[in-house]
Automatic annotation (TrEMBL):
GO terms for molecular function: protein histidine kinase activity. It is found in: Cell membrane. It comes from Polaromonas aquatica. The gene is phoR. This is Phosphate regulon sensor protein PhoR. It catalyses: ATP + protein L-histidine = ADP + protein N-phospho-L-histidine. The chain holds residues 180 to 447 of 447 of the full protein.
């Protein structure tokens, strides 16, 4: 049981009559503390690239830099501004997901097309993360369609795939698969041979800005918001996220879609 904090008001009325009003304010305080944390985190995430950018601008203004030095500085500045753009985009996505009700309109999209999109993204990203790349496999499984909002579902799936690529060292494996479970539910699974995750981190991974390896996350373009976005998308679709991992044994992230959102189709 969680500790409860009560605010108590005593109202006197009539002669010798008192009314005691109590209200649980634990939840209110908790929400307020979370909001403060969030604002502090966002400010910090924006301040870091801004500081770097101002430093570079000052250098360019004061030192008569020649090519290729000048070009190198400009490339680093572009990288920092891209980082801020990515962060702002993720923040907007998250606030849209949290603030708006589920549209209720569902597209049926083929799982094979979603996997192809994930594959293209992973193959483009892998050599940027590790020069010799990773061993990537994609198993489209039985031909199916799933119901949902295409942009949201793709962003959830691609977040899991790009995380696997980003956290797995050069030459490691990333296996992506789609399977139909016996009870009609569908499983989109991303398994990697990366560093794995200690059990104490697992329950907190979908919190906004929660990161285990801060520098690896930053180096590879992470904002710390990816899994928070995944969590919200899945909630809206009635789907679940399952994570299995052990340090040194790689990780497996699965999205389980309810049977009502999955249907088999004729293979093309
Ligand atoms: P980030 O932008 O930092 O990757 P995410 O919300 O996507 O943010 O993930 C949160 C954290 O979970 C990451 O910082 C990383 O520490 C951990 N993580 C996510 N995916 C993996 C993975 N496949 N292997 C190991 N750690 C992971």
């Amino acid at each position: 049981a969680r500790p409860v904090k009560l605010s108590v008001h005593v109202h006197s009325y009539g002669k010798n009559r008192k009314l005691l009003l109590s209200r649980d304010i634990t939840a209110v305080e908790l929400a307020e503390a979370m909001r403060r944390d969030f604002v502090a985190n966002v400010s910090h995430e924006i301040r870091t690239p801004l500081t770097v950018l101002s430093g570079f601008i000052e250098t360019l203004q004061t030192l008569p830099l020649k090519e290729p030095e000048r070009a190198r500085y400009l490339a680093l500045m572009a990288q920092q501004s891209l980082r801020m753009q990515t962060l702002v985009n993720d923040l907007l996505t998250l606030s849209r997901l949290e603030g708006s009700p589920f549209p209720g309109v569902n597209d049926w999209m083929t799982t094979s097309a979603l996997l192809v999109q994930c594959e293209q993204e992973a193959r483009a990203l892998s050599p940027l993360i590790a020069p010799h790349g990773h061993q990537l496999t994609f198993d489209a499984g039985p031909a199916c369609e799933i119901a949902g909002v295409q942009t949201e579902l793709y962003s959830a799936m691609s977040n899991l795939v790009t995380n696997a690529v980003r956290y797995t060292p050069e030459g490691g494996t990333v296996q992506v698969s789609w399977t139909l479970l016996d009870d009609g539910r569908g499983e989109f699974r991303v398994k990697d041979s990366g560093p794995g995750i200690a059990p104490e981190h697992l329950p907190r991974l979908t919190e906004r800005f929660y990161r285990i390896d801060r520098s690896r996350s930053r180096e590879t373009g992470g904002t710390g918001l990816g899994l928070a976005i995944v969590k919200h998308v899945l909630q809206r679709h009635g789907a679940e996220l399952h994570i299995e991992s052990q340090p040194g044994q790689g990780s497996s992230f699965s999205i389980i879609f309810p049977a009502a959102r999955v249907r088999r189709i004729q293979a093309a």
